[in-house]
Specification:
By secondary structure, this protein is an all-alpha fold. It has helices spanning 3-29, 32-47, 75-91, 93-104, 110-146, 159-176, 179-188, 194-199, 201-215, 221-255; strands at 66-69, 155-158. It contains ten helices and two strands. It has a two-stranded parallel ribbon with strand order 1-2. The chain is flat, with a radius of gyration of 34 Å.
C-alpha cells in the first residue's frame, strides 16, 4: 500500500485500541474502590494500624505500622481517574495487542507470523507472573521499610502514593520477567546466537543481581534474591531455546529457502562473449508480376 494508506490504517488501529481502553476504564470507574482495595490489600494487612496484622515490633517494643490517608479535596477523584485508566489499559490489553499484531502481520512471512504469535502468547503470562510475584513480595518489603521508623513517630501513608508504588513495582517486576523473551527474540531475528548468550552467563548473573538490588524497595537480601533467582532461571531457559533454534536454523539453511522466501542471488560476475553485429532483416521475395498485391506471391497490400 502507499504511505497514506498505511497511515490511515494505523490511525484506525489506534482509534480502536483507544476506544477499547476508554470503555474498560469507564466500566472500571464504577468499581474503582474495590480495585483500589485489591491493590492495597496486602500492604494494609501488613502495616495498616487500623486492621489486625502479624506481630511486628521495633527495637523499643512498640508496634510499627502506618495510617493510610487521603490528602486534598480532589484526592479521591484523582485517585479514581488514575485507577480507572490503569485498569482500562490492563483489561483492554488483548484488544490493543491484537490491533498491533494486525497492523504488523501483513508484512511478515509465515514463520515470522508464527514466531510473533508465540512471543505475544508467552509475553503476557510472563508479565503476569512478574506482577503476581511483586504483589506478594510488597507486604514483607513494607514491613522492613517501616521498621526503620524512629520511636514515637507516626507513619502516614498517602493512598495515591501507595497505589503508585504498587503499580510501579508490578510494572518493574513484570518487565524484568520479559528479559528472557527479549533475548529469544534477538536470537530468532539472527542478532544473537545461543552459544554467545551462554558465554555471558557470569555477567548476566551479576547484572541481574545488581538490577534486583535496585529494583526491590527493601534492603534485605531475601527480597533481592527472590527476584534475581527466577530471572536467572528464565535466562538459562532462553539460552536453551536459542541453542535449539540455532540448530534448526542451520538445518533449514542446508535444505534451502522456504516457499515464501526468495532464493539467494548469485552476484558473481561472468565474462560476456563477443557481440555479434546486427544484420538487416531479409528482403521480401520478389513477386512474379512485379506487383505487391499479386495473389501468386502470397502477399497482400498489408504484408
Amino acid at each position: 500500500m502507499p504511505l497514506s494508506d498505511h497511515l490511515r490504517e494505523l490511525r484506525n488501529r489506534l482509534a480502536k485500541a483507544v476506544l477499547a481502553i476508554l470503555v474498560c476504564a469507564i466500566v472500571a470507574a464504577f468499581y474503582y474502590k474495590d480495585i483500589a482495595e485489591l491493590i492495597t490489600k496486602p500492604i494494609k494487612e501488613a502495616v495498616d494500624c487500623t486492621v489486625p496484622f502479624t506481630e511486628l515490633t521495633a527495637k523499643d517494643g512498640a508496634k510499627v505500622c502506618g495510617n493510610i490517608t487521603m490528602s486534598g479535596l480532589m484526592g479521591p477523584f484523582t485517585l479514581m481517574i488514575k485507577v480507572s485508566l490503569v485498569t482500562g489499559v490492563v483489561a483492554a490489553s488483548p484488544v490493543w495487542l491484537y490491533q498491533l499484531w494486525a497492523f504488523v502481520a501483513p508484512g511478515l512471512h509465515k514463520h515470522e507470523k508464527r514466531y510473533s504469535l508465540s512471543f505475544v502468547a508467552a509475553g503476557f503470562p510472563l508479565f503476569v507472573a512478574g506482577g503476581w510475584f511483586s504483589y506478594h513480595v510488597l507486604p514483607a518489603a513494607a514491613e522492613v521499610l517501616l521498621g526503620f521508623t524512629p520511636a514515637g513517630v507516626a507513619n502516614l501513608l498517602p493512598l495515591n502514593e501507595l497505589i503508585d508504588l504498587v503499580t510501579r513495582m508490578i510494572i518493574v517486576f513484570g518487565l524484568s520477567f520479559e528479559l528472557p523473551l527479549f533475548l529469544v527474540m534477538l536470537n530468532f531475528s539472527g542478532i544473537l546466537t545461543g552459544r554467545r548468550m551462554l558465554g555471558w552467563w557470569r555477567g548476566m548473573i551479576m547484572g541481574v543481581t545488581v538490577f534486583a538490588a535496585f529494583a526491590t524497595p527493601t534492603v534485605d537480601p531475601v527480597s533481592m534474591l527472590s527476584l534475581a533467582a527466577p530471572i536467572v532461571a528464565l535466562y538459562f531457559v532462553a539460552v536453551g531455546i536459542s541453542m535449539v533454534n540455532d540448530k534448526r536454523r542451520k538445518e533449514r539453511a542446508e535444505s534451502g529457502p522456504a516457499d515464501d522466501e526468495a532464493s539467494d542471488l548469485d552476484l558473481t560476475p561472468e565474462a560476456v562473449g563477443a557481440i555479434e553485429p546486427v544484420t538487416s532483416p531479409p528482403a521480401l521475395p520478389e513477386q512474379s508480376d512485379g506487383g505487391r498485391g499479386s495473389k501468386l506471391s502470397g502477399y497482400d497490400d498489408v504484408t
